[in-house]
């Protein structure tokens, strides 16, 4: 359904139904010992719940599929039941796999018919603003088979020689033009068939879903990401995430 009078671009998919797959099955080794990363609390609420709310905040998202740690499926179901989530959104929980890629595929296996657009969103990016989610969906609706939110880099990047000894100085081989580089975030958005095909065809280790679509030779586009969509990876990221939540609370007048 189109809600405005502007003509839709060719290939546009108005009225498409959207689901979000949230891989949350990682241990969080870089965060240090403790519960699986997605179950760690940020200001008292598990990171995963923040991530689910971030997806459900988009009115376009009608289903959220959480890919849980294989031994934590029951715990994740209990958590979802215990936290207030929008009524318009359905939830499914499936057990994850050994790698992120496998976890995403297990989430995709649970997609019901009738979903046309799929978002894949890291549980480890709990604070992505809804405007970023909506702009990814919008770009897929406008006809892009794969869309990634991303930001320009703050740091200059060096490419180093392969196979150096750990801890030894590493010879630099190149300095890529920073203005052409982007740091990629999630949610990444896809035309459903494109993403399913990428997961069927592409093997080998990848760290994001869009790169699988690139390997199919299809067009992937970048839309502006957001600094609050950063990934909680190391202990300092927990401090930053809680500071962002505290700032939001102040701004919301709580
Ligand atoms: N993930 C997953 N299944 C895996 C590995 C990762 O679902 N087997 C998910 C994580 O839960 C996270 C997202 O993929 O939400 C991004 O991965 P990353 O930030 O690397 O999380 P972890 O793999 O848990 O962390 P680490 O690499 O430090 O162990
Ligand atoms: Mg990992």
Automatic annotation (TrEMBL):
Site positions per UniProt: Transition state stabilizer: 30, 37
Keywords: Isoprene biosynthesis, Nucleotidyltransferase, Transferase
Chloroplast listed as a keyword: no
EC number: 2.7.7.60
Matches recorded under InterPro entries: IspD, IspD/TarI, IspD/TarI_cytidylyltransf_bact, ISPD_synthase_CS, Nucleotide-diphossugar_trans
Biochemical pathway: Isoprenoid biosynthesis; isopentenyl diphosphate biosynthesis via DXP pathway; isopentenyl diphosphate from 1-deoxy-D-xylulose 5-phosphate: step 2/6
Listed GO biological process terms: isopentenyl diphosphate biosynthetic process, methylerythritol 4-phosphate pathway
Site (Positions MEP for the nucleophilic attack): 178, 231
Domain of life per record: Bacteria
Membership in a protein family: Belongs to the IspD/TarI cytidylyltransferase family. IspD subfamily.
UniProt name for this protein: 2-C-methyl-D-erythritol 4-phosphate cytidylyltransferase
Lineage of producing organism: Bacteria, Bacillati, Actinomycetota, Actinomycetes, Kitasatosporales
Gene name of this polypeptide: ispD
